[in-house]
Every structure is written in C-alpha cells, then in structure tokens.
Amino acid sequence: MKRAAVLGIFALGFLLTLAQATVIQVNISNFAFVPDTVNVTAGDTVRWTNNDQTAHTTTSGTGGVWDSLWDSGSLSRGASFSFAFTTAGNRPYFCRPHPWMVGQVIVKASGIEERAVRPEPEGLKASPNPFNASTRFDAVGPVRVHDAAGRLVRTLEGPAVVWDGRDSEGRDVAAGVYHAVVFRTGRAIVVVKSE
Question: Can you give the pTM of this predicted structure?
Fold first, then answer.
C-alpha cells in the first residue's frame, strides 16, 4: 500500500508539472541573446533560435568554460535548441565561438515535489527509477549524472550503462534527485536514488 501511495504522489506531481510547464523563447540576434536573462519555473523549457547569419551555440557555464549541463552544438541560421530546467538555481550560459555573448536562466522552484517522475524522452531510459543500488541507462553516447545543484557527479560511457550510485571518486552518493544528461543530444531525465 505504501508503494502505491508513493507512486500516486509521483503521478500527481508529474501531471501538475505538465499542466504548469511552458516554453520560453530566446532569440539569437545581432550577436546577442534576446532577452539575455529569462526567469523560469522548474519544469519549464527554454528554446533558443538562431536568427543571425553566423552560427552560434548556447553552452552552459561562465567565462567561456562549459560546465557540462548543456551544449547545443553549432546552430546555423533558423536552427533551434531546447533544454528543460528541472531544479532551481541560476544557470549562466555563453556562445562558444563568441564568448562575450552571455545570458542567464534563473530557475525558481515549482512548489511541486521535485521527485515527481517525468516521462523518459526517446533515446534515454532509466530502469529502475527510483532506484536503490543501481539503475541502468539505455542511451546513445555518454551519460553525465548531475546532482540537484547541477554539479557533475559522474560520466558513464557506452550504449547501455549501469550507475551504481557512486560518484567519479567511487564514493556512494546521498539519496536524492539526480539528473542524467545524454552528452550528444542534451536529453535529460530525473532519476531518484532512494535510501
């Protein structure tokens, strides 16, 4: 009965998140992100569209240094890239070829339980989720696991990898919410490590 109640709470949180999630548009124009700062709620997606003749990127990090949360790759004129923000915090970003082009996404908490299970995007599955000892990712390319604050916990290689709940130093990580991001596609899911 307890498991059913927990799954019901996850499902309710997921449905509420879907109802509240929005897509915020940022245009890349005249070598600038317009607007350069956007305020979103956890669960929202930001979509960048390049309107310049020159190729640009949207790359998370500061000072021209990528923090490995997202990277659009080269966006030619008319191309778009989207990223869903799942946890609260300030997320600075820049353009790799033009590092003076900077922006910021300010993500506020949704007020909904962050552990609500979201549907897994095509090309990335985690099973089981939530997990205790380990979870298996079926993904194309490396998977980067981040903690709720956005810090890189571990990078996993292979078409199908198992995360044993340990960081890159072999230490067992705390129970909580983690984000798995496929490096090449930027697709991400929330995984929950239980106690």
Answer: 0.51
Residue-range domain boundaries for the chain:
9-108, 124-193
- Distances from the Cα of 192 to the Cα of 4, 107, 133, 153, 180, angstroms: 17, 20, 11, 14, 10
Q: Count Cβ atoms within 10 A of the Cβ of residue 169 and give its class: 0-12 exposed, 13-18 middle, 19 or more buried.
A: exposed
Q: What is the CATH architecture of 124-193? A: Sandwich (2.60)
The matching CATH number, chosen from 3.30.930.10, 2.60.40.420, 1.10.132.30, 3.40.50.620, for 9-108 is 2.60.40.420
Per-residue pLDDT of the chain (195 residues; tens, 9 = 90+): 444 444 444 444 443 443 446 889 999 999 999 999 999 988 888 999 999 999 999 999 888 888 888 999 999 999 999 898 888 888 999 999 999 999 999 998 865 444 444 444 445 677 887 888 888 877 766 788 888 777 888 888 866 678 888 998 999 998 888 878 776 666 677 788 877
